[in-house]
Amino acid sequence: MEMFSYSFDLATRTMNPIHGEQLLTQLNWRYATKKFDPTRKISPEDWTVLETALILSPSSYGLQPWKFIVITDHKTREKLLPATWNQRQVLDCSHYIVFAVNTKITEDYIDKHITRTTEVRGGSAQALKGFRDAIVSDIVAGDRAATAKHWATYQAYLALGNLLTSAALMGIDTCPMEGFEPAEYDKVLGLPAKNLTSVVCCAAGYRSPDDKAAGMKKVRFPREQVIHIV
Ligand SMILES: Cc1cc2nc3c(=O)[nH]c(=O)nc-3n(C[C@H](O)[C@H](O)[C@H](O)COP(=O)(O)O)c2cc1C
If you measure from the C-alpha of residue 167 to the centroid of ligand 1, how many angstroms do you get, rounded to a whole number? Predict the structure, then answer.
């Protein structure tokens, strides 16, 4: 198996679980990084893994109504800084990801997904017609069409969560970021022409040794207030 690919081959879908303790150690290690070390960059190999984790994110109907815009260009990041409430993570992190979603889900888009499904799994579009029409009558023509952008946004947040956990497992720091002005980002990144809009961002890289937030205790409600067993 190619090391960093996502695979369509079931034979390579192997199980190699990590221990619960290791998972919780990494989840406790993760925190929303306030100060990144601007001198440390994620290696191309590690970044490829994280990109792949993004691509592997689940989405409703498998529709993947997103684009992950990876901003490495420093000038662009400087333009984004004032629209990011001047949060320096946008400048100092290694990779800055803007999660953008389709502003409208169209029949053409659903057909693109059906075509891709037949490319990957074989079979015919005709055999998937029931599935296709069900999606169209929900997201494109149904009650949810009016809020399709919100629906797409939920999917993007799942990808964000997947990225945060994946990065933490690899010892890579992140800061999820909602503190930005989407309209300004859209302008800087030329998103409206592509029928896209930015919904959330993530800075990724390595914490600065003097980031005080790293030493702060996690604030979470007690287990019994959050987990309800019925
Ligand atoms: C969707 C989302 C948006 C966030 N936006 C910001 C942000 O703009 N700037 C920031 O410093 N932290 C941001 N945070 C970080 C949260 O404040 C942080 O996750 C929360 O306080 C819990 O702390 P922990 O992640 O360190 O455990 C955001 C978190 C999430 C999940």
Answer: 15
